[in-house]
Structure formats: structure tokens, C-alpha cells
TrEMBL record, chains C, D:
One of its GO terms (molecular function) is oxidoreductase activity, acting on the aldehyde or oxo group of donors. Residues 209-447 form the Pyruvate flavodoxin/ferredoxin oxidoreductase pyrimidine binding domain. This is 2-oxoacid:ferredoxin oxidoreductase subunit alpha. The keyword Oxidoreductase applies. Residues 472-541 form the Pyruvate:ferredoxin oxidoreductase core domain. Keywords: Oxidoreductase. Residues 13-174 form the Pyruvate/ketoisovalerate oxidoreductase catalytic domain. Pfam families: PFOR_II, POR, POR_N.
Amino acid sequence: MDISDFKSNEEIAWCPGCGNFGILTAVKKTLSQLARHPKDILFVSGIGQASKLPHYVNCNCFNGLHGRTLPVASAAKIANRNLTVLVTTGDGDCYGEGGNHLIHNIRRNTDITVIVHDNQVYGLTKGQSSPTSDPGYVTKIQEEGVILEPLHPLEMAIALGAGFVARGYSLETEHLSWLIGEGIRHKGFSLIDVLQPCVSFNKKNTYEWYSKRVYKVNDNGSYDPENKMAAYEKSHEWGDRIPIGIIYRAEKETYEEKRGLSQGIPLVDEQIEDVDIKGILSEFV
Amino acid sequence: MDISDFKSNEEIAWCPGCGNFGILTAVKKTLSQLARHPKDILFVSGIGQASKLPHYVNCNCFNGLHGRTLPVASAAKIANRNLTVLVTTGDGDCYGEGGNHLIHNIRRNTDITVIVHDNQVYGLTKGQSSPTSDPGYVTKIQEEGVILEPLHPLEMAIALGAGFVARGYSLETEHLSWLIGEGIRHKGFSLIDVLQPCVSFNKKNTYEWYSKRVYKVNDNGSYDPENKMAAYEKSHEWGDRIPIGIIYRAEKETYEEKRGLSQGIPLVDEQIEDVDIKGILSEFV
Amino acid sequence: MTNELTIKITGEAGQGIQTIGAALCRLFKNAGFHIFANQDLMSRIRGGNNFFQLRISDKPLFALRQKSDITVALDKASVALHKSSMTDGGILVLDRKKFNVIEEDNAFFDVPFYDMAVRTGGSALFINSVSCGVLAGIVGVESSYVEQAMNATFAGKDEDVIRKNKDAACVGYDFVRSNLKRDAFRIKAGAIKDTNTPIMNGNDAIVLGAIRAGCKFYSAYPMSPSTSIMEVIARYAKKFNIVVEQAEDEIAAINMIIGASFAGVRSMTATAGGGFALMVEGLSLAAMTETPIVVVVAQRPAPATGFPTRTAQADLEFVLHAGHGEFARAVYAPGTIEELFFVTIKAFNVAEKYQIPAIILTDQHLADSYRNIETFDLNKIKIQRYIISKEDSKRIKNYKRYQFTESGISPRAIPSWIEDVIYVDSDEHTEEGHITEDAEMGRKMVEKRFYKKFSGLSQEVEKPTVYNMERADIVLLGFGSTYGVMREVSDTATDKKVGFVHLPQVWPFPAIEMAGLLKNAKRVLSVENNAGGQLARLLRRETGLQVNGSVLKYDGRPFHVDGLMDRIKKEG
Amino acid sequence: MTNELTIKITGEAGQGIQTIGAALCRLFKNAGFHIFANQDLMSRIRGGNNFFQLRISDKPLFALRQKSDITVALDKASVALHKSSMTDGGILVLDRKKFNVIEEDNAFFDVPFYDMAVRTGGSALFINSVSCGVLAGIVGVESSYVEQAMNATFAGKDEDVIRKNKDAACVGYDFVRSNLKRDAFRIKAGAIKDTNTPIMNGNDAIVLGAIRAGCKFYSAYPMSPSTSIMEVIARYAKKFNIVVEQAEDEIAAINMIIGASFAGVRSMTATAGGGFALMVEGLSLAAMTETPIVVVVAQRPAPATGFPTRTAQADLEFVLHAGHGEFARAVYAPGTIEELFFVTIKAFNVAEKYQIPAIILTDQHLADSYRNIETFDLNKIKIQRYIISKEDSKRIKNYKRYQFTESGISPRAIPSWIEDVIYVDSDEHTEEGHITEDAEMGRKMVEKRFYKKFSGLSQEVEKPTVYNMERADIVLLGFGSTYGVMREVSDTATDKKVGFVHLPQVWPFPAIEMAGLLKNAKRVLSVENNAGGQLARLLRRETGLQVNGSVLKYDGRPFHVDGLMDRIKKEG
Ligand SMILES: Cc1ncc(C[n+]2csc(CCOP(=O)(O)OP(=O)(O)O)c2C)c(N)n1
Ligand SMILES: Cc1ncc(C[n+]2csc(CCOP(=O)(O)OP(=O)(O)O)c2C)c(N)n1
Ligand code: SF4
Ligand code: SF4
Ligand SMILES: [Mg+2]
Ligand SMILES: [Mg+2]
């Protein structure tokens, strides 16, 4: 497939300069390298700026409720394993409203790839703190600054047994595109938290702020993402230096495999007009 | 206070031999050593067998919805910091339906103590799998055995920055009572996951099964619960050996402290009859 | 007490009352009786007091009686609790020695259960089988039925287990034949000629309907009284290639079935009112995205946790108006097990045809009550798919998911089947499924989802059931599980002629039809398991007609035939 | 166009239209005009098209007009978008050079915004202040008001910033005075003598009400159009010792306010329909546990995400029936900013008195519309606490949280204040708050929570507002935000006499009163921002009366005075 196959004609409603553009570029690039027809790719999103992304690519799109991406995505994958399922969601969508689905879908381990546009703020609702906002971050609601411990999504995902845990940065589109590709290739649930500057509301975690800190975790080739304890250390690193890349990776059997759904015809192709229940009806006699 | 001060006259609706009895014993014992009047202690619970516990002690009780203990408990504490707030909840209640509140209340870090009666099964609804059920565990719903990765509550809590993470065992009532006491004494959110045999539905994780595996994490005095990486290792240990005790501990400022609620009069004692809004009304002129 | 009996087995939770109950249902049906059975459980696993009630008769049964003719007390507490709810001349079976009961009572019939169980089976566990035998003996069915019931109940178990249970039952049976002097309870068997018919409860019927309708994905979170739907469908999941997924919560459950349905698979969830409260946002999502789903709401007394194991019909108005925004929905409220089966199938078809949520409103009483039924006429069933077939899909280009049509229904394509991509959105959207802010588009989409679909749906509403209405002095009005009790009252009322109208579908409300049926009625009483008289209010809103009164019950218990009869007499 | 003007400022999201809007409101009010202002926003942060509409007049204003007399286009796209919605003789202000507009139009009034902004302030940011000046000039208010408005808007900023903005505004003002030939827009100022009165929107009024009512705990999850309630209360949190907590989701929000309220603190949450959908279970919990809470539901178009930044009244039925089980609730639907303030206070009192959930049903239009109002008469307010005081608490022993009383209201103690302990349960419970399975207890508790409380509540329903009803040819009927537009139509209708009835409280429904008011009306039309005619249906259900028609609008936009007038003419 060519990148133009994924072009959508929708006008983009993001602010000029928004970090989401970098993610969009990366996503499209990955798609163009997938060798999958747009009709076989499904984007599931929630509500928020991040969640508008599916409208800007030419793929199937289920743009559902705020926070409820993962149940929709997992079930769509279960229903039709031939779909490549990607989720684009925000830090509010995925870690706030949708937190319970995140922890349980990591456990469920369907083969889906989740891209969290993490701008550490609620963009679409105009600048409230999000679960990942830095302590002290001031908003109209958090007038004296955020006092809750930030959610540590990568660390949490590792603790929950996720098999692919990564962080990207929206300015590093090549690297991000590679990460997303690796996420898709990974069999099972992949979580990619993407640092995404929000130029309108997050005046703290800016391009400059991130760019100064971000480094590739395996730049010198010595980082082993299969070492869980090292991964815990790295995933907790947040300050002067912020690692991006594949933080943790492990092979796990997927939900579909365990359920025996990876063989036989996909559920969606089952003929259902003439299901014969005579046999089981007789069990009630 | 004496243990008899905490005696309730309610008939106990648990099955004979249920692991909940051990927890009840431990709880009462802790209470009797607290030097707090029953009226100053609040139990918050949800729905499930575990959640019936507050009826069996003579303390304040808010027995709310399935899964919704933590928002109630945190807010009650915020409203009246003089209450000692304990939560009794089940593995379904706290980790399933209530998962999102768990992750965010760990971050919120109000000074409450959460006791999870973890029987690895849904007791009250008659034996479905719970988030902590062991893989392969067979139920009427999971006819071919549980296929989801079990939730690792302790590991997850550490990842989320909880300051007190412990595991108890309902047969070890002395130890459990001590743990609960430590949890209460700990300033901030304390999570105590308690292994609790369900004699009616969980025929796998029985008294025998647990007793054979359980050991006190710090029996030889060399375990340092303040070492996070060691805590990660320990919290993941589940198999032939299962550690109980304080797995992780760290001092953190509480929500109340950060909000300035630990000084001044508690919210509940504020006079509200004559709030003067003239000043702010003039800001709208 | 002419040609029917009410039998009650009572004891603590955990004593296996449900197992005896099931065995007895089978036993008496095979002996040719019509049966109706129901359990009364506490929300606990052991202890307390549970009971199983079984009515048998030579005529079809649809409801319960308040008092029992034969009560078998399996523990001491039950004696005191149930002594007062016996009919005159009724008999209470107990193990005097074991329970240490010294007082005398005319109704008592002493049976040394415990000794007999230990003697035959080796342990108290066999009390259940003993009591089966005892009951068969009291009613006087042939002993072969007892054996047959034991064989069926313990099918698949060890030879030895089966034999011991049979022994236990036979000893019980024989004990009665030798010791019971009265034969008042020997009612005539053999009313059903073909006993090769099913016994099932409401939840079973829903599962069978869903399987037949082609449901391939079921996701739910356990909640009484809906849980057994998940258990039963899980039992058949492998055979029919159905994925049954226990969700982390009800919000996940409804969003999962929406996701699976979007992907092209017929999907269902079930819950009670409290779980449905968490699905309300998802219901609205299904409507907005025009994704077909079937949601079973099995009512129980609320607010909040309420009486978890008991019955109510108090969520009618809630279910009718649940969800933010305005959209078409179908709400079914079948009254019998047969209706539940067929309506479930219809719900799947209608949901898919109109691309809407279809709700099946049931309750604990209907969900958990067993009846012997006629074998379903499977030839009546037609599964029609309202999607663009895989064949036709290949030719689709420039697909618009929300294309405007006369009917409000846009042809629905399945992702990956068509060559084009599909956009679906929870925001207000264009025909293409993209987010819009346009007022005109918004207006037209509301009309599509609300007016147009509603108008089509209204054409295929399940007809109200009309019974004994000619020259009726009193017309009862109900929905859902009260069908049974209304029918029995209508059949047996003597003072005045009582007819009834029952709505198996409450939305769209069949307003014109109902107005026609009721406007000349002498006296209309709504019969509802709620405190608000919700059906009566709906009737008034939709037709302007006011009922003359409402017979309401809101204590968590179903109506009994005698109870309703009395109440009607009082209401006049 | 006699004594009023409609002014519109339009541009992209992010151009600061709200700031200019606020400044203009102040400016014109201080100049002695009545104002009504409202914004039309897209659900995005930058780009697209937003506008701020401001009506000014020498008479009190309550609604919007469709067309504007003066439109200021801040970007090129706005010119084409808004050209057609001008009144005859209206004027469209634009920067021809900057926008590169070559076509001619009678309405165009070219103002070199951009140059003036750069010249005076140094950047395009100052366009806002220029346009303030321009508008002041067109309307012809004295220039001192322009300065005053700039001072107020930039109070607290650098001297330099203030001066530059003043310069920019003055340059705009002067430009108009020199270049605008027409003075058609110079309407007479000075109608308000005391200009020392507030301007606020609906959400502000709710916050002020809540603070005055003693709300000490507020928890919510951001959702338009309710978000500004949280922002404004957060602004005053420190001053009044209020805890404002952003919850992880709406479920947490409602459970948190229940927890805080149980502990003795007045608590509130606010959300939109979609967030309320997630609170439905919690609502039922509040009712069951008898914990007072106040919930603001600010409606927006749905289903699902719908039009996030727009208006609707489509959640009336949803809110009335939300929650499983049956329980008393109060639902308010105030029509003005003043009413919102007082009703919010009442909601807190009523919630606490009856220990129930009280809902304030508002919508985006009311939430976000600004008006100049009379200063609230604070002396009218009485905060009464319906709890056992700390004093009295000391004497309480053997406390029963759910003690049966005539009124259904049990004396409410606060944990740790009394010497005894308090049990509260979401299961059906005894008077002591312990779980029960008893049928009789269940029945009595339903009666307590549903019948008895309802009956008390019914005694203190907010009276419907009755306006111009004598000999009215047409009677309009509405709730919530349509008050304003009904009032203006009623005031200005000439063909026929139009009166109206407005319900600031929709539940309990004032049935007897409404029947009295409407039964002799010539022609009743319900005016609703929904597609279902939900108020009309409620009226029929509660009184049997049917309206003669419904004027419905469901495109996400509020009614305009002219629009409603036309529709009424059509409806006859
Ligand atoms: C149930 C519900 N609650 C609240 C909202 C309002 N809402 C829309 S987007 C959003 C937060 C967006 O934040 P995030 O997910 O971080 O996305 P961003 O806009 O920052 O990309 C909220 C609270 C909603 N649509 N639905
Ligand atoms: C919203 C909601 N969903 C489902 C239920 C039904 N329910 C009651 S208890 C329970 C699970 C109990 O499991 P757990 O929390 O582990 O407690 P246990 O009984 O094992 O102690 C469920 C699903 C409910 N009460 N409310
Ligand atoms: S508000 Fe922030 S996240 Fe949203 S589009 Fe604008 S810059 Fe991006
Ligand atoms: S079902 Fe299990 S957890 Fe519940 S009381 Fe019985 S033994 Fe305990
Ligand atoms: Mg964000
Ligand atoms: Mg459990």
C-alpha cells in the first residue's frame, strides 16, 4: 500500500502546531508499510483530540465514547481476527475515564495496538489536569497545582503483564512509526504512550521541555527490553531524562490463541440463518 | 477500647468455615487495640461476601454499591479527617468493577486502609472467576478454564506509587491483625490483599493450598520493604511460595496534607448557615 | 385441593434445594403432571432460609399459590418459618428426632430422613433423594418415576452414586406408603400424554432463543437474576462457536457487544437494573452509531442493591427512557417462557433490521420459574440478516454508513467485507460518518434515528395478548411476568368475569390497539410488581386512558394466584 | 430595529472571541444597556468558526435574535459564513485588505483591524481591542466606557499592556467616528440607571448558589457544558474552604459526593447527559441510602457524544426516570439566571430535608448565556440544616438511621458527632440499616422512600411561572431555558395574544395546578428543544391534558425570538 491510500479528505480540527500531527504522520507511515488494505484496518477511538485521528486516515473507524475504546477494540478483534485493530486515545480517555478497561484489557491480551496521545492534559475540554499531569501543574481546576501522584502507565502496564510496553515522542516520527509498527507486529496487546505536546493548554510540557529530556532507550544498544526489572527502572524514569523506545517486551499467548479463535473461520463469517438447536433443546426434556 | 465494644448483634451470613471469619477476627482485634471509639471509625464496603463485614462490627458502616467503595471512602475521609476509614472489599469489588477507582485512589492517597478479601472468585454470585483467579481455574462461565492473566494487585499498586502494600492470610489472624494495624498507622492509602479461602466455590485455592505456600516475607528479618525493586520481585512471587507481610512501604504526603485539610476545622464542622457571598458577587459586576 | 397440589421444600442455603427441585420437576412431569416451580432464595450461600415451590396439576400452570399442601422441612428453622403457610389439611414433613421437635401439630408427618439417608447412602447428603421419594410417595406416583428421576439427575455419575441415591429415594417412598394414613394428596396423574416435552426457566429460554438467532458473542458481568443466562450460554459456547466473555464491568460488557456487533457479529448482554444503570451510556452509543445490540434486563427490587435475589417490575420507566438523547428502541416484556424464546429471536432480528438497541425486560420471577412447555415450533422461526451480504459487499464503493433513506435505515456494510472503509461516530455525523457541527445535518440525523426508525418499528409491534375479554367485569392489565398470575386468576375467578390484556412489547407502545381494547372496558386494573403503577402511567401518557385502579406489589415477591384474587376482590 | 441591536463577533476558535465578548458585555451594560449574550462554539480549540452574539437594548432581554445588525468578522471565512444572516441594512465589519476580499457588498464596512492592531499594540493580538472600540463607535456610546472596559478586562496586567489595549480600542473607536457615514445603529443608552449590577451566565449562578447553600465538597469530571461550574467553584474554593476534586470519572464523582454527604458535608456534582448516564447507578444509591446530593445536569445534544458544545432539552424524561428502582427525587428546571441561583440553594435544602437526590436540569444555552441581572436579594435566603445538630447529637443513643416516621424522613445523624454508630446500606435494610430479606420490611421501606417522601416534596414544588395568560389566544408551555424566548415572544407578539406557563420544577409535577391553568386555555403549544415533545408527554401522563401542538427544535441550537414567533404563526 502507498501512503496516499490512507489519505482522508476530512479537514483536520487540531490546533496548528499540535503534537498530534506528528503522530498522524507516523501512523500513516506505518500503515503504508503494512501491506494491508485500508478495509482490513480498524481504528477505534474515544473522545478527545487524540480520538479524532481515525477521521484523518482512510481506514475503518469506530469513534466511540470517551474512555470506552478498549472493550470495543478487543471485541471487534474477537469478532473478526482478520482486522488489524489500532486504538488512538488520549491520556484522559485511556488512563482516566477508561482506566478499568486498560487494566483488564492488558490482562485480556487481544492482539490490538493502543496509541495513547499523552499530552498530560485534557485538551478538548480546555485544559484540566489529566492522570499523567506533572505534580504542581496549574489549571483552572487545579488552581494550586496538581497534587495527585501522576499515573505511571508504562510501569503499571508492566506490572499487569503487558507484553509490549513502549513510549514514543511525537516529534520523533520515524522512531514513532517504527514503534507503532513493532506494536502491530507484536502478537497481543501493545501499549504505546506517546509524548504529545499540546500547544494550546500545556505550557509546561512543551516541545522544548520534552526535546531536552527525551532519549532513545536503546541508543547504545545495551538495553534489554526483556529484562523486567530493568524495564521497571526505565519506565519510572521521568525528570531530566525521559526514555523513549520499547521499554518492555515479552512473548505471551494472545486471547485469540487461547480461545482457539486464531484457527477456523472468523466469527463474523459464521452462517447463522439455520443454527440447529434441536439437540440442545432435547437436553431440557 | 475493648474487643466487646466492637461486637455487633447481626447474624453472620457467611458459610461455615469461610475465610472471612479469620479476617473478621483480625479486624476486631486490631480495632480493640486502636484506642478509637467505634463512632470515630467508618467502614466502607461494596457488594459481595467481603462487603458484609461492616455489619458484623460495631462501627459506622457505609455499605455502598458493588465496586464503588473507594470514592465513598476517600470523600468521607476528606469530609471528616477525624474518621478512621477502613474499606472491606472483595477481589471482584475492588479489582474488577472497581478497578478504575483503585488506580486513581492510590494516586489520590487519602489516609484510608483497604482490606481486600481476595478469594480469587466471585463468592456472592456463586463462583465465577475474579480478576485474581488462577489461570486454568474452571467455573460455569469459564468452562475451559480462566485464560486471562491474573491481576497482580500488589505489583500494580507499587507501580502506581502506593505507600503501603501488603498481603495477609486469613488463617494468620495475629499477623493479619498486625498488618491491618500497620495499614491504619500508615499515613495515606494502604492496600492489604488478604488470601481468603472460599470453601463453597473455590475448590482450588483452599486452606490447604494456601497454607502450604504462604510464608512471612520478613521471617528472617532481612527483607527491606522500602526497596522498591525487591518489592517488585516479591509482589510477583506466586506459586510454590507466596509471601505475606508488608511488601512495600514508603512515606508519602497524603491528600489531606497536600490540600491543607489536616489543619483547621474539618469540613464537616464548618458553619454553613451564613456564608457571605457579597464579596464574590461584586466580582461579577 | 381438587386437582392440584403445591409442594414446598425448604431448608438452608447450601442444602441443595435447587437440585431436589429440578429432580422433582422432572419426576412429576414424567408422571404426566403439569408443573410450575420457583425458588425463593436469600442473597447468601449458606444458612438462612431458602425454599423451592412446586405446583403440580392436571391443567397447565402459570403461577404460584401462597400456601402449600405439602411442605418438606429440611432443617429445624424451616418448621417454624413455614408452618403457618400451609393449606388446611396440609402436611408438613419433618425429621422430629433430628430436629429435636417435641411439640405436636396435626400437620406434622414425621420422617426419619437423616437415619434413612445415612442408612442408604452413608451420609446426610442423601436426604435430598430421600425427600424426593417421600414426595413421590405422598402424591402417589408410581415408583418407576422415582427411579427414572434419580437416573436422570445423576446421569454421568458413578454407578455407585446412582444406586445409593435410588436406594435413598426408594426408602423414602416406601416409608410413606407404609406410614402415611391419609391419601388426600393422591391427585390424578397422566394429564400430559406426551411427556417428552421440555422443562425450562425463563433464562434458559432466552439462551435458546439467542443461540437460534445466531448470537455469536456474549459479554456480561455476573448479576442476579441474569447470571444463569451467562452460565447456560457458556455451556453451549463451544458447540455453537460462541464467544462468552466475562467483562470487567457492565460498561465493558455493553461496549464489547457494540464492538463485536459493529464488526458484524450478533451480540447480546444481560444484567439486572443496577448493571443496566451502568450500561445506559452504552445504550445511547449503540443508538448513535446505529449498531444493533440485544440487552436483557432482568429486574430485581431496587434502588441500589435492593433485594438481589428477588423480583420486581420497577424498571419499566427506567428502561424506556434510559440513555441521553432521543432514539428509537424496542422494549419487549414477554410473559411466558415460550414467549421469551420467540421474542428473543425477534429482538435480534429487529435490532439488526433497525440498527438499534432491543431490550428484553424480564424479572427474577420469570427468569427463575420452571414450567413444562410444549416443544417450540422451530419451523415458525425465520432468521433474516439485515446486512449487506459478503457477496454484495464486493461491489460496494463510496460507502456511506449513514446514508439517508425513507425508512431511516441505511444499508449496513461489514468492515473488511466491502472494498471501502466505514466510519462510525458517536459525535453527530454526516452520512459518511464524519463529525459534523451542522445544524441541518443534526436535525436530519435526529429524525433518522428517532422519528423514522420509530415509525417503522411501530409497524411490527408484538400484539397484546387478549384473554377472556368479552363481557369481562374486570380487565386486568400487565406486562412481563404477571401474565401467568393474570391468566390463572382469569381462568378461575368465579364472582365476576375477569379478563386481561398483556403486553409482550411495551415500546413502541401499541397505543391505538390498546385504546381500542380498553376504552369500553367496565373496569381496568393494572397489575404490577412495582409501587408506581408504571404501566398505568404509560398507558395514560400514550392513550389518555386512566385505569380504574392498580394492584401493586413491591415487597420483592411475585403475585400468587390467591393473593391477586383477594386484592382484586378488594379493589372491586 | 428601534431600540435594540444584535451584534455578532465571529472568527476562528482560539481568536479570543470569548474575551472580546465579555469586555463588550461589560462595556454596554456600563453604558446603561440591557444585554443578553451567548456564544456558538465548535468542539475544537483552534480553527473552524465560532461566534459571540450580543443583544443590547433599553429593555430587559432574555433571548437571542436570528439575524445580526452588526457583524464583526475576524477572519475571512466568517465573511461568507455570516453575510447571509444579517438584518436588512445591517453592517458587516471586515478587514478587506487583510482578508483579501475584493467583492463589493452594501453591508460591508471596511476596517483595517490588522494594521491598527499592529500599529497600536505591536501585534495582531490587539485586533480584539480594536474591535471593541469599533463596536462602541458604531453604537455610539461615549468613549469613556471603552476605556473603562479595557481597564476592567486587563485589570492586574502590566501598565503597558493596558495602555496598548486602550490605544487599540481608541483607534478603532475613532476610526468609526470618522468613517462610518450611517448612524442607524446609534440606539439610546442609559436605560439602566444603576449599572452597578452583575453580569453572569447560568453556570456562574449555580456556583454562587452552591457556595451560598454551604456546599463544601464538589467533585466532577469535565464535560461541556458543565465544566465551567467546576472552574468557577475552584476559583473560590480556597476562600470558602471548599474541596473541589476532579474525579477519575463520573461514577467516582457521584460516589464521592455521596461519601462526603454521608459524612455530613453538603456536596454537589455537575455533568452533561452523557456523564449523567454514568451516574445513574449512583443516583439510585443516594436514594437507597437516603444521602442528600445535588446533581446538575447541563443538557447538550445527544445520543452519545452528539454535539458537545451545543444545546438541547432532550434529557427530561431520562432524568425523571434515571436509576433502577423507585424513589422520590426533585427535578428543577429553572429558566433564568436568577432562578438558577435561588433554585440551587433550594435544591440543597430540599435534598437535605428529604435525604434524596435533587437534580438541577439546565442546558448549554442557559449555562453559557450572559445577562445583566438585578443584584440577588440575599435576604430572601434561608439555609436550614436538616441534620441532628452537633449539640443534640451528644444525647443520641440507640440510633436508627432509617427509623420509620410519618413523613418518611428519619432524623439524620452525622457519624462521629453522635455517640452511637450509624449503619447505611445499599441492600434493602431494616430501620437500623442492616441487610434484610423481609418482605414486609421491604414494602415499608419502598413506601418510605417513594410514597411518603414524594408526598412531602409535592407540598413544596416551585410554582409554575404564569405570564400574560389572561385571555391569551395561545399559551406556550416550557421548562428550563426556553423561559427567555417564550417571554420575549409573549411580550412582543402582536397578531394574537401569547401567554406562557413555565415550569421551574418538573418533578414532582404540579399536576393539579397545571390542570387548572391549562384546561381552559384556547390553544396550548409546548415549546421544547427536543424532538419528542417530552414535556407535553409528561403533561398528558400527569394530567390527562393534551397540548394542541409542540414547537420542537432539535438541531443543537436554541430558539431565537423571531424563529419561535414564525413557528407559532405556522402552528396557528
Ligand atoms: C462520559 C464523558 N465524560 C466527559 C466527556 C468530556 N470529555 C471529552 S474529551 C475529554 C478529555 C479529553 O482528554 P484526553 O483524553 O487527554 O484527550 P485530549 O483532548 O487531551 O487529546 C473529556 C473529559 C465525555 N465526552 N464523555
Ligand atoms: C453493578 C453490579 N454488578 C454486579 C453485581 C452483582 N455482584 C454482587 S457481588 C459480586 C461479585 C462478588 O465478588 P467479590 O467482590 O470477589 O466478593 P466475594 O463475594 O467473593 O467476597 C457481583 C458481581 C452488583 N451487585 N452490582
Ligand atoms: S488543544 Fe492541544 S491537544 Fe488539542 S489540538 Fe490543540 S494543541 Fe492539540
Ligand atoms: S461463598 Fe465463599 S466467600 Fe462467600 S461466605 Fe461462602 S465461603 Fe465465604
Ligand atoms: Mg490529553
Ligand atoms: Mg471474591
